[in-house]
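Why does residue order matter? Because the sequence determines the fold. Keep that principle in mind as you read this record.
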Amino acid sequence: MLIRKNVKMILSELKIYEKFDSIICGDEVKRGKPDPEMFDETIDRFNLKKEECLIFEDSVEGVSAAVNSKVDVVGITSSTSGEILIDKGCITTIDNYLNFDMSIYG
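Structure:
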């Protein structure tokens, strides 16, 4: 539960913790990325359809998990090049969330 404690602390400091209905941390699933379990669990928990979801990821393992989950993924180039993220299956890449244009997604 150390990951959850850290997530709660960071999100609380940013004053956004209360905006989340649910949080699933990496140590709360049996299989980590690139297994899609974390994404599938989240989608199931909120009773969503995969085609209505969009995942943002900055790592090759995270992109692979999203692709394995059959959900569109946007790559964030903070730690991996855009070329690599696109090659792994991202529909597009951004360098930060402020540069994401939701209109391209629909």
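The beta strands are 54-57, 72-76, 92-94.
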